[in-house]
Amino acid sequence: MAHRSARYDYGGDRYVFVEFSIDMELAQNFKTLSMAEAIKQAHIPGIVEVIPSICSMLVEYDRTKLHADSLIGRLKGIEQSMTQLTQIPTRIIDFPILFADPWTTECAEAFKGHHNTGEVPNIDFVARENHFPDRESFINALCATPYWTVMVGFTPGLPWLYPLGVGNEEAIQAPKYNRPRTWTPDRAVGLGGAFLAIYSVRNPGGYQLLGRTTNPIYDARQRYPDFKENPVLLKPGDILRWRSVDRDGYDRIWSGIEDGTYRFPIRKVTFEPEGYLRDPPGYTKGLMGGG
């Protein structure tokens, strides 16, 4: 593993800030999540929570039990001991999506004056920007690409997703809207740069709207079975497998979610960052092929 020492700083009187990179690099995100896991396994008295971001983290501590300088020393020791990236326990989750659905299409129509070209639905703009001959070939390519959850945040449960198994130059990308929208439907799937995001609640936004997923990702009242332990579905390191469905399929799944009979297909796996970095396409294919 190429070593790049992290930067440590104080985050007020309750947090230590640890930064590995200012750029989006999967290798640095893997290091962030690996170190977050290593910190949890160290069971350091006084640590309240470890909050990973894309290539940085906040470590919350109880100042009545632990001093910031002492904590920074412990964290540096953990980082220096990481001669290899820690295996990351994670999950592969099936995410049905209705592309060019009526709800995000209505939203795109309402804000087409904010869009780069005014094109509705946005999916056709994105397909053309990425040199796909038609919408179907774009959908096939997106659904063939697993997406890694690099972080969750900004609004409750909102995941930031990056493609696995492809180089940066091969990743599907698109510019954001020229001006943000004032609202976006919940469960809308949007693309900005190479990142996909799922809007957890009705919220402003500027990502290109591709479709709407059946899966709620935030359930504040914890009504649905998959949210009994946590109102947020996704965790950093989770892998999303996209599956295109038509309107009938979408409605059937949503009806099952609403009445509590549908459970999200989830497969627990152990992700090995070192194996991935040696052969991203091959490792990704092997990991996804088992489910």
- Unreliable parts: none
Largest sheet properties: 7 strands, mixed, barrel
The total domain count is: 2
Identify the CATH class of the largest domain. Answer: Mainly Beta
Number of strands: 12
- SS content category: alpha+beta
Instruction: Classify the helix fraction into a percent range.
Output: 25-40%
**Secondary-structure element order, as H and E?**
EEHEEHEHHHEEEEEEHEHH
Euclidean distance between termini CA atoms:
29 Å
Integer-rounded radius of gyration: 20 Å
Range of strand content: 15-25%
Q: What is the CATH T-level topology of the largest domain?
A: Cyclophilin
CATH 4th-level superfamily of the largest domain: Cyclophilin-like
Describe this entry's structure for a reader:
It is a single chain. The protein has helices at 26-42, 68-81, 102-110, 122-129, 135-143, 247-258, 273-278, 280-289; strands spanning 7-11, 15-19, 47-52, 56-61, 88-99, 147-152, 159-163, 188-192, 195-198, 208-213, 239-244, 266-271. It is an alpha+beta fold and 291 residues long. It folds into two domains: 7-84, Gyrase A, domain 2; 90-289, Cyclophilin (Beta Barrel), CATH 2.40.100. A seven-stranded mixed barrel has the order 5-10-8-9-7-6-11, surrounded by four helices. The protein has a four-stranded antiparallel β-sheet with strand order 1-2-4-3, covered by helices on one side. A hairpin with a 6-residue loop joins strand 6 and strand 7 (159-163). The chain is globular and about 55 Å long.
